[in-house]
Amino acid sequence: MPKSPARIDLLQGTLDLLVLRTLQWGPQHGHGIKVAIFSNSNDVLQIDHGSLYPALHRLEKRGWLTSEWKLTENKQRAKYYRLTAAGRRQLQSERSRWQALSEAIRRVLDPA
């Protein structure tokens, strides 16, 4: 599938940060996470299912998420993911690293 001009490829590790942050607002199923990231990025960050679901499984395996099967608003069975205490700590760590990286990139792009 061709990429749209506005599409931005995510740096490795950034998806974890976005998923953890999205789940900080409450439990959500995979498609809901994808929609929230797209919507909250003003329709710029589009996550492929082929990237999202392996990330969710990886985060769950690390103990940063838990999951349970529930019915969606449309009465569909879906796996809902929830942030754990370890996941909240990891989110803080990831945010700090992202802020440091963003600041370093800003300094390179706009040197004094």
Structure characterization notes:
The protein has four helices and three strands. The chain is an alpha+beta fold and 112 residues long. It has one domain (14-109): Winged helix-like DNA-binding domain superfamily/Winged helix DNA-binding domain (Arc Repressor Mutant, subunit A). It has a three-stranded antiparallel sheet. Strand 2 (65-71) and strand 3 (77-83) form a beta hairpin.
List the helices and strands and how they pair.
Elements: H1 14-24, E1 28-29, H2 30-40, H3 49-61, E2 65-71, E3 77-83, H4 85-109
Antiparallel strand pairs: 1-3, 2-3
Helix pairs in contact: 1-4
- Our measurement of the CA-to-CA distance between the termini, rounded to an integer number of angstroms, reads 41 Å
So what's the CATH class? Mainly Alpha
Largest sheet: 3 strands, antiparallel
The ordered string of helix (H) and strand (E) elements is HEHHEEH
Beta fraction of the residues? 5-15%
Helical content band: 40-55%
TL;DR of this structure?
The chain is built from 4 helices and 3 strands; from the N terminus they run αβααββα. The chain has helices at 14-24, 30-40, 49-61, 85-109, and strands at residues 28-29, 65-71, 77-83.
Key traits:
3-stranded antiparallel sheet, 112 residues, 54% helix, alpha+beta, 4 helices, globular, Arc Repressor Mutant, subunit A
